[in-house]
Each structure stands twice: as C-alpha cells, then as structure tokens.
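Progress report, Aim 2. The chain analyzed during this reporting quarter is listed below.
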Amino acid sequence: MQKDLQEKMDQFFRDAGKQVEAAMRDSGTRLPDGVSGEMFVREMIAAAERVANSPEGQARTAKMREIMEQVAAELPGRYEDPLFEERMRARAQELLGKSEDGSNASA
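Predicted structure tokens for the chain:
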C-alpha cells in the first residue's frame, strides 16, 4: 500500500513538474539552472508542509477551521450553501489582513 502511494506521489510530482515547466516557458520565465519542474514542485510542497507544521501554521489552521464552522452555522445550507465559498473568502481575507486587491490592509 505504501509503495503504491509513493508511486502515485512520484507521478504527481512528475506531471505537476511538466505543467510548471510549460507554464514558466509560456510566460517567458526560466527555472534556475539545474532545477527541473519536478524539483521545484517537490520543494514547494515540502516548504508548504514545513509552514503547515509550524506553530504559526497550526494556529492559522485552527483559526480557519473555527471560521469555517462559524460561517457554516450562519447559513441555512451550512457547508453546501451557495454563499459559503463567498463568505469564507471574505472572512479569510479579514483573517489574513488582505484587501480585495490582495494588498496587505495593515501596510
């Protein structure tokens, strides 16, 4: 079972790496010399995992979970309500201190 999961993950990294390489090539941006798209994706996933496992990442995840529960409780359809995604996005922006244009509201 573990080997099958590893094979699937390896295939994901290869496929995602090809997509990254194509997207960067199409945008006129090069990966650093000696770095493949697969290597880039693997490092980005590892970096995201480090952040998620940090105390700050854990606190942010707990806060987002709390907000999700609050938003769901406010809507008649809870998580399936058509307005859930829109309200979650607005609340997440409030939490992260970002304005509609993506700039930092506290800056």
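The mean pLDDT is 89. Helices lie at 2-27, 37-53, 55-74, 84-96. These observations will guide the mutagenesis work planned for the next reporting period.
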